[in-house]
C-alpha cells in the first residue's frame, strides 16, 4: 500500500507502529523535529543554566501528548530542568483558565505548547489576559506563530 501524508506530524503514525515504511511519504516535518526545535530555541534564549523548570499545555490526543513527551526528554537532557506542570485540554475547548492558573502558580522558566489553530489563539488570548506571559520567561511551540497576530 502506498501512503502519502501531507500533514501527519506524529511519529507514532508510522515510525513506531509499522516497521516497513518503504511506500510512505511525508511532505511535512514531524513531531521530533518540532519539539526539539522548541527546546533548542528555549536554550538559545535563556541558556542551559537559565532553565530550571518547565511546563506544558498541549492538545489531549497523540500529537500533543507525543510532542510534550519529546520536548520533556529534550529539555531535561540539555538543562536538567524539572517539569512543574503538564496539562492537556481537549481539542476545541473554550476555556484554558485552569491550565493557565496552574502555570501562573508555578511560574516556570519555559512553557511549551503544541496547541494550534483556534486552540492556540484561545491559549494566547487567555494567557495574555491572565498574565501568564508576564509570569513565564519564554513560551515556545511549533505552531503558535500562526496565532501570534490574533493577540492584541
Q: Could you walk me through the main structural features you see in this protein, from its secondary elements to its overall organization?
A:
By secondary structure, the protein is α/β, with parallel strands linked by helices. The chain has one domain (30-150): Response regulator (Rossmann fold, 3-Layer(aba) Sandwich), CATH 3.40.50.2300. It has four helices and six strands; from the N terminus they run E-E-H-E-H-E-H-E-H-E. It has helices at residues 31-46, 62-79, 97-106, 117-129; strands at 3-5, 24-26, 53-57, 82-87, 110-112, 138-140. The strands form two sheets. A four-stranded parallel beta sheet has the order 4-3-5-6, with helices on both faces. It has a two-stranded parallel ribbon with strand order 1-2. The longest helix has 18 residues, at 62-79. It is globular and about 50 Å long. The chain starts with a strand and ends in a 12-residue tail after the last strand. This is Branched-chain amino acid transport system substrate-binding protein. It comes from Natronobacterium haloterrestre. Keywords: Signal. It holds the Pfam family Peripla_BP_6.
Per-chain topology:
Blueprint: E1 3-5, E2 24-26, H1 31-46, E3 53-57, H2 62-79, E4 82-87, H3 97-106, E5 110-112, H4 117-129, E6 138-140
